[in-house]
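Loading example: each entry is read as two labelled lines plus one structure line.
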Amino acid sequence: MKDIIIIGGGFAGINLARSLGGNKHYRVTLVDKNNYNFFPPLIYQVATAFLEPSSISYPFRKLFRHKHNLFFRLGELKKVVLEENKVVLSNGELHYDYLVFATGAETNYFGLQNVKKHAIPMKTLHDAIDMRNRLLQQMEQAIITQDEEERRKLLTIVIAGGGPTGVEVSGMLAEMGRSILQKDYPELKGAYGEIYLVDGSEALLSPMSEKSQRNTLEAVRKLGVKTRLNTRVKDYVDDMAILDSGESIPTKSLIWATGITARVFDGIPADSYGRGKRMLTDAFNQVQGTTNIYAIGDTCLQTTDAKFPNGHPQVAQVAIQQGKHLARNFKAMAAGRPPAPFAYHDKGSMAIIGRNKAVADLPPSLHFKGFIAFFLWLFVHLMSLINYRNRLKTLYNWTVAYFSRDQSLRMIIRPDEENLT
Amino acid sequence: MKDIIIIGGGFAGINLARSLGGNKHYRVTLVDKNNYNFFPPLIYQVATAFLEPSSISYPFRKLFRHKHNLFFRLGELKKVVLEENKVVLSNGELHYDYLVFATGAETNYFGLQNVKKHAIPMKTLHDAIDMRNRLLQQMEQAIITQDEEERRKLLTIVIAGGGPTGVEVSGMLAEMGRSILQKDYPELKGAYGEIYLVDGSEALLSPMSEKSQRNTLEAVRKLGVKTRLNTRVKDYVDDMAILDSGESIPTKSLIWATGITARVFDGIPADSYGRGKRMLTDAFNQVQGTTNIYAIGDTCLQTTDAKFPNGHPQVAQVAIQQGKHLARNFKAMAAGRPPAPFAYHDKGSMAIIGRNKAVADLPPSLHFKGFIAFFLWLFVHLMSLINYRNRLKTLYNWTVAYFSRDQSLRMIIRPDEENLT
């Protein structure tokens, strides 16, 4: 039995591991710094208190049960020792025959140190819980303060990045301001802050169709969100989001939903990396300059796919398909058959805006908006949640939230030691 | 309108506040350092990953909606200034006409500094999440270590305190060791640790009937829990729980579920406190030596109730009844009628052991055990959960957990900065 070590249990890693479950040629160990897989497309709903963390996450060990060749190891990759075929983790070492990087991407602050220090990222489950706690605490402070200027800063939210996450968060927060906050914070007497959505390109959801972009812009503005297109946040100083247009917006909440970057690992040759620190691979996802190392998902830059000469978009569908594809290739190799090159099948994209609007593009040229797109979105996301129980819970949460225009997860749960200010 | 300030939103505070909801004589502000009420009898289920934190907690602001005289303030009490009728909070000041302490009790380490530093408390929702994360991380370490001795320490759990919490936690962990851990951690190959339950008195659940005590001891032992009665933990040094019997148990997990203490507040005269730092009150819950300050629940020591000359037990029922009773007295005072003295009506007590056993004493002399007691326990706790939605979710979680002998909340969700070891 050969040892496959997978670093990272996101879409790519988990699909690779599960597709090899029960295989008699490979023993698969998945290494992750968390003990659970989570579903990134819905972390904005955890951040806005619609869903519980547990509704969109699932322990690896439970996923791997009954598959006797699948193992989980809690740990963080520190170094690869190519000559010895081993990885050094934060808590030990592992030998591999094949090593697979499925390490995804992390928030990119583009070197803006003030932003990195004070903005709210939206990439991990813990980011989402932090955002929830922080926004709720700021509401409480807004009630106490006697300073009008301070209150405005506490209630104003600037979202950098008009991709799906930015659009979804801004829509959700705008809905919340209308329906829930007015009921929960009567002390504010209608003094609610503004929500700004800032994006560097000329449209929201820039990879989507023009039609969907127009629909999205219209829907977001209708919800009261102020948009700033062709504009970037260039600094964040003294509670002031400074835009490159010259405008400055006073806010205590800058949500950073723009830009991601892959990571560089000790032991991997420098010329194995391409644009955005992504690992350059051949058509079989093998990393350039290595013999038994592979990369899949966001961290992989593969330019052999005819339709995507600059590499694939860093989206869930690519990661899922690459994970499953690499599993097939491993099986082929074990059977003495040649591996097949990877080709991405675009299944379309969608985003949800506020309570019951969405946009969806289905290739080659179908566009949906409004309620139909909303149901499409619900269906696709619900089906993608990793197990039945999470689906049921999420459907229940959504149904209650939809009809009650409310959500009840507004608890600030944090370590006791954190002082109140 | 007179101002009532309630410090603390546990059973006592929340029942007082809600009973005054809509009253036209009083404006009520509840101050708490959390923005949610939670249900302490079930935190052991959060700790053992059966329930989500949100299933047993509820935001104050949502509870107070539609009651225009009820307000919530996030903050911590720093000082009372009696002469000025004001409280100084961590984030501002509030004036009161009546001040009510419903501050509950906190974990008592009896001066054992090593225990305070390294043991796992079981009093707050955050304690419960911490315990969950810590036990799960130790399981992961147990798999990695090559050191037999170290593995035994990682897998052994000592629970100090044989009250309901200790009994419930030990039963739950014993069940988990049997059913879940073997499936999730095949690497351990049956090398599971022991669970010890240590109590200073001669029986478990010492305030309950002898019959229930006997049944509990029997049930707990059947689950494989090792009991040490008439024994106390006197120190915790180098991963070694040192008992006063001379025995020492190597363990990385000492769960501290024994002993609580009330708290002393700056500004309240020293002679207003009695045993266990509880505030001495008259029959109307007015604190000795003050004119407009009251204490209810665990923090109150009232010796005027004929059946309880040494004060009431520090249990949920007393807190609930005192909260409601004080509300009636406030209403009486507003109407010019005299207040009534408090008298506690004991509704019985119960505890659950493992998956489907429980004991219940209903006064004057009814005892139940086994399945009937289990259903009684389910019914009473479900009815006590604060709103319908939490009840439904909890019932669902319990049903799934019961039939699947499993629970799925085994995610270690913690700040990214915390390093893995």
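The first strand of chain B starts at residue 2 and ends at 7.
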